[in-house]
């Protein structure tokens, strides 16, 4: 809350320090104040629509020029767009975050340690979050909204291609925060890649980094910081078609998981098939893949069956194909001898994201779901369901394949931790340590903390 | 689950790989199997008592020789001891962990996404935990018990001084696991400091490192690994005595927090006192500190008052004293102008462990508890309560000052994460993506997952 040491620090360290100060100030922002700030953000963005669309147009123009030179993909240019329906959806997103229940202050433990000595565990913001995202500028608004809702301070680093769009979006959000009496430094923007490198060193001020983007971005971040990172690099999802799979369910699920939107992390990359389903189920699945224009990379055992599917593009697979995130209409196929082999394959080759078994046998499904060590384990459902909105979280901060803090699609609660509040009346430890007094340790779910805000 | 790539790997990488394989195998160990394994561990340790006490005697003899040469403290030698009551307490600890409810499989979310499409979030082990601890050999048994209970695999690194004790304890535990049909590699021991360095690189196999020991150990670990670390380096806890503090409660709490056991992380190091309590409350607290043989380091405003306390050892403080974890009978004292200054001081100088306000004013207490950004925020209770056993967790894996995963005293649940289980009946995403179908997102707390184990 003071800047007395700020004379000798770098610009980026100053950004991080201001974020920490803002995060501390956010601790006193009530539910109503944070929701009012989101309302102000919504209205300011609406009021600045023309200027935002114009800045976005400039980004798009520059991007189209790069595309014509071949140095930017058309998909990326498309993702830059903020006009029309996308603008409205972005504003709706702010309202929808405002309408979510306040996650801050939720009490997950209420326990009487002894007479007059009451313990509570209460949800609170993590503090300072740094989110590094690529290209889509509406992500800046979504993330800022989630951060304000959860009383965190956020440092945003967007893609270079969306620089002008991000700049005006964040400036509009900050002006709204000023008007709403919430610290504007609760949302800050950092522009260049060089600045990211320096942000990664701010262990004192940044509590969590969430990279949202390419595999290489996530790896770069993870390899270059001591700050906890939440996210996922790979999404190598598998579908295991069991001996007792229903052929039509198998076909529908494999085609949906592979082809409904292949460029995303929850799309399936590998098809494992039980040897006893090879002649009964695989031809049906192969026909579906052909209709969806999927090319297959087949092992020796599955190749003859797939070769017999009219029109299906089949190549022989190599071992590396089973560790590859294709993100396009290609799928590696492998025959396994048993459920247990399928589990072993997935645990060794997958990325711990989402894996599915297709079977009519309930006990096989239970075994698969217990033994596959992934964030999502599915039975007879497409891996594409692995998404915060589809899970009903209202918003998503990312998908985590880590095994601490949060796993799988992460909603608002991924931006929260808790603190313990203990209320006594002069209680000291000495009489408990020497045996004079004993703890009662009675859970008291009916007793809630009084939280000042 | 195979060792095909093990020919080219180091001994430590092989340890880590075996731990990963064991953690996967633990996924199929039922509640009863894990509790039976703990029973077997208890019985084996009891059966091996003479050999364990003999090995411990050898460690103690070597330590006493080092102590006589002045290269080991007597406190450390004392902490090595495993005989008598300590042995019995160690065995009781195993039984008490066995009697805790099974944390694995607990369902924290049950939601109907649509007809026939049911989502569950189910607690599961993190996987492979590495715990690095110092001197006290019974910690090996406690940690191994918690790890077995939570279906994790653990790699233990104990202190050099307890080498023989740790070796026989872990070998006894492993033989019990073999007899109980739980993979023995779920508990492994690593002996040397050089091996620790290599363990810190095993990002592929180790999911979480928990250092339990000195500040320098924790810093070394945190500075030298990309694996998530849970724990705390410093425990700089403060007591803020408010303008409306009850003098006797203030005295009791300050003395207990500082002097009841000064060598631990939840002991208080700093006393902040409101200027209006300077003449009324501080003399009473000072008298208590004198009786407890505490030396004080006072700022200019508090020094005259403390100097007037008969027999109290008072020195002038320097700024560094307010960032120091004394771990002995010394305490820094500072006068503040307001509650808000106290909060700012704590957030800037403290370590986010546990801080307390002493006041009779409820709204000041609420403000303090909301604004102090620490794992524990206390009102009229000694900071020494910050402990997993005192919170009623039955067991403690450590105290975390991090802001992700787990914060404050961490019980068994700190060794758990969750996975999402989705049960469908051939459900695919396409009709939801094109608007044909809509999600229902109804919470269904009565519907529980069937878990195979």
From TrEMBL, chains A, B:
The keyword Oxidoreductase applies. Residues 10-294 form the Aldehyde dehydrogenase domain. InterPro entries: Ald_DH/histidinol_DH (IPR016161), Ald_DH_C (IPR016163), Ald_DH_N (IPR016162), Aldehyde_DH_dom (IPR015590), G-glutamylP_reductase_CS (IPR020593), Glu-5-SA_DH (IPR012134), GPR_dom (IPR000965). Keywords: Amino-acid biosynthesis, NADP, Oxidoreductase, Proline biosynthesis. Pathway: Amino-acid biosynthesis; L-proline biosynthesis; L-glutamate 5-semialdehyde from L-glutamate: step 2/2. It comes from the Eukaryota. Gene3D superfamilies: Aldehyde Dehydrogenase, Chain A, domain 1, Aldehyde Dehydrogenase, Chain A, domain 2. It catalyses: L-glutamate 5-semialdehyde + phosphate + NADP(+) = L-glutamyl 5-phosphate + NADPH + H(+). The keyword NADP applies. GO terms for biological process: L-proline biosynthetic process. CDD domains: ALDH_F18-19_ProA-GPR (cd07079). Its EC number is 1.2.1.41. One of its GO terms (molecular function) is NADP binding. Belongs to the gamma-glutamyl phosphate reductase family. Catalyzes the NADPH dependent reduction of L-gamma-glutamyl 5-phosphate into L-glutamate 5-semialdehyde and phosphate. The product spontaneously undergoes cyclization to form 1-pyrroline-5-carboxylate. HAMAP family: ProA (MF_00412). This is glutamate-5-semialdehyde dehydrogenase. It comes from Gracilariopsis chorda.
